[in-house]
Structures are given as structure tokens and as C-alpha cells.
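User: Run a structure prediction on this.
Assistant: Running it now.
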Amino acid sequence: MAVSTTIEAAINQQINYEITAAYNYLAMAAWFERDNLPGFAGWMMIQRSEELDHAMRLYKFLMDRHGKLDLGALGKPRHDYKNVEEIFVAAQQQEVNNTRAIHNLYELAINEKDWATQSFLKWFIDEQVEEEKVMSEALGLIHHAGDNHSALLMLDQRLGTRSAK
């Protein structure tokens, strides 16, 4: 059965959110690279990759349901951060916003009685719990490090060991 135009539009919007998040993570990674923090940069590149994977999952689902892809424009990502903590605060807020968007999409699928979309979105709901947890843990460590450059360098090294799922 083809996806409704309402669900189709909402999925297209979510694809745009995911790609925008990837774009933002790329800009964050570049900030870290410029500041000689390759571990943080690598961590953000993994985040970027995950967001693109999420967009492609949504794309595939949309195609499987005979929907039409309608990509929106991407805004210029922020690049003027003051410090590591400010970047991670922005990244955490991005994940919170993305979770809200997934929940809204799920609620729409419930209202539309679109069982396939509801089932599909359960993976995203679980994934966002993990995304927010990982971001919160990293931000907590960064907050504890404060302005201690040695601690931030240790965290750069630690977070740089993260590997893709």
C-alpha cells in the first residue's frame, strides 16, 4: 500500500532533519580539526555518518511505500563555537529536537492509522534513546573537565576511540 501524502511529507521532513544533523556534525568535526582535537573530530564524524544512515533508512522506507522524495534546502551550519562544551550542548539539543520530531512523526502515523510506519519508526525511537544517552554522557564528561586542558586532551583521546556501529 502506498504511503499517504501526509506521511510522505512528514518522512521527507524527517529525512531533511537527519541530513541537516549530519551537516551540522560535519561542521562541528571541522571545528575540532581546526583546534587540533582529532578525537572529538572523529567522534563527530561518526555522528555524521549515523545521521546519514538514518536518512537513508527513511529514504528506503519511503521508496518501499511508493512515496516521492522531496528534499528541502539545508541551512548553513554554525561554525563559530567558543569551546568544546558549547559544541556538545548544541549537539545534545540537536538530538533532543530530532527525538521530538521522530515522536511527532510516530504520533502522526498513529493518527493516520498507518501501521507500517508505526512499526518502522520503533527502531528510530529506540535509536534516539541511545543517541541522547551517548550525547549526555559525553557532555557530562566535558562539563567535569571544565577548562582543564589536560582533561580535555584526555577526553579527546578517549572519545577518539569510538568506532562506528
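The domain at 5-159 is CATH 1.20.1260.10 (Ferritin).
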